[in-house]
Design goal:
- The protein is of the alpha/beta class.
- It folds into 2 domains: about 220 residues, 4-Layer Sandwich (Metallo-beta-lactamase, Chain A); about 110 residues, no CATH class.
- It has 9 helices and 15 strands.
- The protein has an 8-stranded mixed beta sheet, with helices on one face. Strands 9-10-11-12-13 form a 5-stranded mixed beta sheet, with no helix packed on it. A two-stranded antiparallel ribbon has the order 14-15.
- A hairpin with a 7-residue loop joins strand 3 and strand 4.
- The longest helix has 24 residues.
- The radius of gyration is 20 Å and the shape is globular.
- The termini are far apart.
- About 0% of the residues have low confidence.
Length: about 350
């Protein structure tokens, strides 16, 4: 396997090693049963030193492809000295923990991911416990029942296969020397998760955007074990923060490298402006809960109905609707009242 040019005509998720910039390579790794298809891991090489931005999901096939990719760069899995992870989701974090157990190396993760990591790795936690509570609040009882059937509602025991160990370094905003000849700026960008970070390589004109800025989709908002207040408000604020920085080439976790972070941020901000208006309109047409509103909206670029989505993506859709409605309340465009455990929305 030889490194390919990043402007190759191959689909972004096809296995291989793609040269992004001098010393920077993109290695897409497979995801299981996931519409995203792959996650991009970026290898930064300086002499004999090697660091990875994100690490992939700890799957046998992904490990084999990562090993093959590093071999094309003259390296092995045990040569990775640092894993810098944009956020705590499984497809970004768990391979780093698995490889650290076997070979060493250090893991850096945003400091505000600590509570979610603690909950994910603790005993007695179902994968979607926090989301089930949020769905109750959204009035989505039918969806709650489906999720309990799919993921279980009881407590689970922690096993040695769990890969939710703490990082070696909790990353804080500021400049960090990654390799002897390369510094990255750690920028806190909450929204997708509470502790999501992006990495700015000013010298090379690159921004490793993780799931914060993606080229073709909008990331889920606030999907993590430890919920936080107004995730959409924080996400939009993080987008504006990135927009205020110098423009860079965009190196996303899912999708092809793009020439301008600013161009995509502008599209995402415009999308959420439209989505806020559409979501508010569902309340004007008679919806009162986030679940009822989600049923009236369409989803994905194909404009599917909520019923057209699988159970996991229906959950994300309802939670995203709730995030938009709650932001509209803070903006004074809607009011909200609690009836039991369910939140109801109305025009002012």
């Amino acid at each position: 396997m030889e490194p390919l040019a990043e402007d190759s005509s191959r689909h972004w998720a096809e296995p291989g090693v793609y040269t992004v910039a001098p010393g920077v390579y993109r290695i897409p790794l497979p995801l299981p049963h996931d519409a995203l298809r792959a996650v991009n891991v970026y290898a930064i090489v300086e002499g004999d030193s090697l660091a990875l931005i994100d690490s992939g999901w700890a799957l046998t096939e992904a490990r084999e492809q990562l090993a093959a990719g590093l071999k094309a760069l003259g390296a092995e899995l045990g040569d990775v000295g640092q894993f810098l992870v944009t956020h705590v989701h499984r497809d970004h974090y768990t391979m780093a923990v698995a490889l650290r157990r076997e070979f060493g190396g250090t893991i850096g993760l945003g400091e505000h991911e600590a509570e979610s990591l603690r909950l994910a790795g603790g005993p007695g936690v179902t994968p979607v416990r926090a989301q089930l509570r949020s769905l109750h609040r959204a009035g989505a009882e039918p969806l709650v029942n489906e999720l309990v059937e799919s993921f279980g509602g009881g407590e689970r025991r922690r096993t040695k296969e769990d890969l939710w160990e703490e990082p070696d370094v909790w990353l804080t905003p500021g400049r960090r020397t990654v390799l002897p000849g390369r510094q990255l700026e750690v920028v806190h960008t909450p929204g997708h998760t509470a502790g999501h970070v992006v990495f700015d390589d000013a010298a090379a004109g690159l921004l490793f955007t993780g799931d914060h800025v993606l080229p073709h989709i909008t990331p889920s908002i606030g999907f993590q074990p430890a919920p936080f207040e107004l995730p959409l408000k924080r996400y939009l604020g993080s987008l504006r923060l990135v927009r205020s920085m110098p423009d860079r080439r965009m190196l996303p976790a899912h999708g092809a490298v793009s020439p301008s972070v600013h161009a995509r941020v502008d599209e995402l901000l415009a999308h959420h402006d439209r989505r806020l208006a559409e979501t508010g309109e569902t309340i004007a047409r008679g919806a009162t809960t986030a679940y009822e509103a989600a049923l009236r909206l369409t989803w994905t670029r194909r404009e599917r109905t909520l019923a057209d989505l699988d159970v996991f993506n229906r959950m994300l859709a309802v939670l995203e609707t709730a995030a938009h409605l709650d932001l509209l309340v803070t903006q004074g465009r809607l009011t909200a009242t609690e009836t039991g455990d369910v939140r109801h929305y109305a025009l002012p």
